[in-house]
Amino acid sequence: MVKIDNIELPDFPLLLAPMEDVSDPPFRALCKEQGADLVYTEFISSEGLIRDASKSVMKLDIFEKERPVGIQIFGANLDSMLRSVEIVEKTNPDIIDINFGCPVKKVVSKGAGAGILKDIDLMVKLTDAMVKHTKIPITVKTRLGWDADNIRIVEVAERLQDVGCKAISIHGRTRAQMYKGDADWHKIAEVKNNPRMHIPVFGNGDVNTPERAKEMRDKFGLDGAMIGRASIGYPWFFNEIKHYFKTGEHLPKPTIAQRVEMARRHLEMAIDWKGERLGVVETRRHYTNYFKGIPHFKEYRFKMVTQDNPNDVFNTFNEVLDKFGNATL
Questions:
Q1: Is 31 a catalytic residue?
Q2: Which of 157, 174, 203, 252 could form a disulfide with 222, with the two C-beta atoms 3.0–4.6 Å apart?
Q3: Nearest to 100 by CA among 60, 37, 43
Q4: All structural domains of the chain with their residue ranges
Q5: pLDDT at 327
Q6: What dotted CATH number matches 256-324?
Q7: Which residues is 169 bridged to in the sheet?
Q8: In sequence order, what are the residues at sequence separation of 6 or more whose Cβ sits closer than 8 angstroms to the Cβ of residue 56?
């Protein structure tokens, strides 16, 4: 068992990473059904929350079936972060996670996300203040460092733990790498192997097969895996990992009928939550993976990502089902 404060998770839990415009309530619900042990919201701007920006506030929506669920916020201003904690508390998440890892320029340029890796003292100060400001467990997601010459993640993790951070998820790249090159799990393992560390250390980056998840567990000894890009349009990935852990064998890939049904449910839930326009547009990014590997699929994918009327998209799903039936990949 792995514990984040009083939250009990199974051995080597699988976490759905917070991803902008991806890990919304419909997708989180599907991943939860398919074996995710802990899910996180999209990252939410603290400045947006305190200005009551509609897009930021909407991201606070969480549902009982998702629990345990963490709300992730980012920012670099202490007052704004504390005020945003008070707003987040009202939605009663199980965890509040601080994003100290987003590499996107518009976030970093404000000193937030991975930008704070240039100021470790501020990173620790913000975490300390937020821990003291709420009874909800505070966790952190971060990267190895700003660049290859400034990797202090063992020290950073220890300092965050010492001010009350209850778990840390580490993406095995620097900010300078963005998403290029390989994630360095050895550096994450150095944090886990630090004899002073006693909070869970989760690995993130390049967990894209069940074998890789097993390697993160068995070779690198981490407490769990946070999964991001490999789950987009493929919520089955969590159960595939768990099945592999139990049996050493791979689950059969979902049939085309199962893929169509999952995409259909995803779009229906997205429309229920966001309305037709946003529901249709923001589900498009998932279709490439929902239907990955189907031969001669280009015309159907083009339809799915260009149609604005949900009925047209559902009709395209039906066309796919009629043409490909129960074929497997």
A1: no
A2: 203
A3: 43
A4: 2-247, 256-324
A5: 61
A6: 1.10.1200
A7: 141, 202
A8: 44, 45, 48, 49
15: left (phi over 0), alpha (psi -120 to 50) or beta: beta
Helices and strands per DSSP (H, E), number in the chain: 15, 10
Q: Give yes or no for residue 307 having a pLDDT over 90.
A: yes
Residue-level pLDDT at 176: 79
Indicate which residue of 7, 95, 102, 116 is catalytic.
Answer: 102
Q: Do domains 2-247 and 256-324 have the same CATH topology?
A: no
pLDDT band, very low/low/confident/very high, at 231 (cuts 50, 70, 90):
very high
**pLDDT value at position 150?**
85
pTM (global) more than 0.85:
yes
Is the bond preceding residue 68 a cis peptide, omega within 30 degrees?
A: yes
CATH architecture classification, 2-247: Alpha-Beta Barrel (3.20)
For 26, half-sphere exposure in the C-beta direction (CA atoms, 13 angstrom radius) is: 24
